[in-house]
Every structure is written in structure tokens, then in C-alpha cells.
Design a protein that fits this description.
Elements (H helix, E strand, L loop, with lengths): L2 E6 L4 E7 L6 E2 L4 E3 L7 E3 H14 L18
Length: 76
């Protein structure tokens, strides 16, 4: 899990950002979720939403696995 402290000049403070394991974007902790394995695999809400939509619409699949691309996680 990659965590960054970023200076926010507007707020005159540092902010904590977490890297999404799918798109590799940096997000505040409240904008990411951890997979059910509780192994630190963090994925942003946009990637989760996109993955769920693709699985339901494209594959008619209701089983969702961890989508962290940095590790091979089989958590459902």
C-alpha cells in the first residue's frame, strides 16, 4: 500500500493520500475501500463502480473479486 503526505497550500496543511491498486491514482482515505481479505488492497470508488457495472452489464456476473492489480488476490 502506498501512502503519501501531500502539502495542501489552500488548507495550509498536509493531506494523506492512498494509491488505488487498480488505476494507481492518489485518493483521500475516505475515497477508497479495502477488499474483503483485509490485506491492505485499496481500490478507489470509481474503479469499484466501473468493475461492478462491467461485471453486471457485460458478463451478467454477480461474483466480484479483488481488483487490485499489484497483487494476486482471490478474495471475493
Amino acid at each position: 500500500e502506498e501512502v503519501l503526505d501531500v502539502w495542501d497550500a489552500k488548507e495550509n496543511t498536509t493531506r494523506l493520500l492512498v494509491e488505488c491498486g487498480c488505476c494507481f491514482g492518489d485518493y483521500p482515505p475516505e475515497a477508497v475501500s479495502e477488499c474483503s481479505a483485509n490485506a491492505g488492497h485499496k481500490v478507489c470508488r470509481d474503479c469499484i463502480h466501473r468493475h461492478v457495472s462491467e461485471q453486471l452489464d457485460g458478463n451478467n456476473n454477480v461474483e466480484f473479486c479483488c481488483i487490485d492489480t499489484k497483487v494476486e488476490c482471490k478474495a471475493v
